[in-house]
Amino acid sequence: MTHSTSRRAVLCGSAATAVLAAAGSIPAAGTAHAEGRGERRAKGGPEIGILLYDGYSLLDPTGPAEVLSRLPGANVTMIAERRGPVRTDTGDAAVVADRSIAEVDRLDVLLVPGAGNRGTVAAMKNQALLRWIRRIHRNSRWTTSVCTGSLVLAAAGLLDGRKATTYWASADYLESEFDVTYVAERSVRSGKIITAAGVSAGVDMALYLASLIAGDTTAKAIQLAIEYDPRPPFDSGSAADADPRLKELALRLLAESDDSHG
Amino acid sequence: MTHSTSRRAVLCGSAATAVLAAAGSIPAAGTAHAEGRGERRAKGGPEIGILLYDGYSLLDPTGPAEVLSRLPGANVTMIAERRGPVRTDTGDAAVVADRSIAEVDRLDVLLVPGAGNRGTVAAMKNQALLRWIRRIHRNSRWTTSVCTGSLVLAAAGLLDGRKATTYWASADYLESEFDVTYVAERSVRSGKIITAAGVSAGVDMALYLASLIAGDTTAKAIQLAIEYDPRPPFDSGSAADADPRLKELALRLLAESDDSHG
Q1: What percent of chain B has pLDDT over 70?
Q2: What is the pTM of this model?
Q3: How far is A35 from chain B (nearest CA, A)?
Q4: What's the CATH code of the domain at B146?
């Protein structure tokens, strides 16, 4: 089987021709911080760091990374307490942390993903992680979370007196343990802190953040670039409308798929 | 700062209590194939393999993995030509392949993600990958793709005479190079082959696939588990309605964020 494949052919037609003609012409947005990038060159756009820790939920960091990596000149870096693979809650996948927290002093954007119970509780008690989050937050332009990542931000003391969102099943816990007002929105901005609701909400939050960093036109183009015209097969994604039995099943599936189970 | 965190507390209230009481009681769905899992125990549910190759787009494999890993008893395995980290199109992230294609003989579900031009073209020419895809497809229950992954399935000869979808910018190419009829839907089923549209469409496709494997109630619960009640900030994700200039900008952002650029 032979096909006349070429870079130009796969993204076909006049649009691709325009791309190739225009490549290199996008002005860089934001400010550059080369710290902690080591051998990778600064690209002139925002330095975005995503904190991985044992037991995170895979889509929490990767959905926003897909969006934010398309920002002009952006560097997205996966960061963890130590360099190397960091496994998800289910144990099914590992994303590589390319930098340790000791190597990263400053970020334009910090994103803290959520995790299953095990991972969230461990991160909330990890004083080295919490200290690093507080330090990065001091000079960040945006400090953000997805899902139970807001519990980690709260444990670091960043959400005191603020409005925030979190995973639907953790909302009562967030309000009872911290001085935080839960808001049931896909994402909630409070000053330079943006928290997103559960797992998939990170994609919506990241597009909103993209619009704040680079403007609406760029954010709209990124939404088109990832063909984000969602058509979920069911209307079951909101806990506000969910039957209690469906909530129980959802939490049971999460508990059973967790690597620490059984 | 001390908090009375516990496994029970983070997912709070009666739902979590029910989870803990019920844990272990979900019947396994699907058939088990332990081949290629090595040290990991079979969990009684479907064996799902996601093929990584250099230059894939991060959300293509990770969105569906988040969904499918919640199926009762499912094993999701990241697979590549060789074990080890496999980098995305932007170079910003790497997911670890835990198995090589030589180690995996049979899967219930195969998922082939899409990639940037560089990665897609290379995969379409990689005869070892294409042979493996054809071999796995012979005994799979479902063979699936996201984004330009359908071009890889087509290059493997699996889409001849079929309807399929792909990334919006690759639709003309798919139809001109292969005996395939492009359908502009989030996912298209043809026999046991399901193709999804670009990047984010993998999440919609995976929920549909979850319903085929484990029924609507389980799929609805997974949708709630990932809080997938999408609220994109813009209405710009469909190429059918997009301004040509926005399409050009989208493709330019993709080209510029590609690791092989500049």
Answers
A1: 83
A2: 0.88
A3: 16
A4: 3.40.50.880
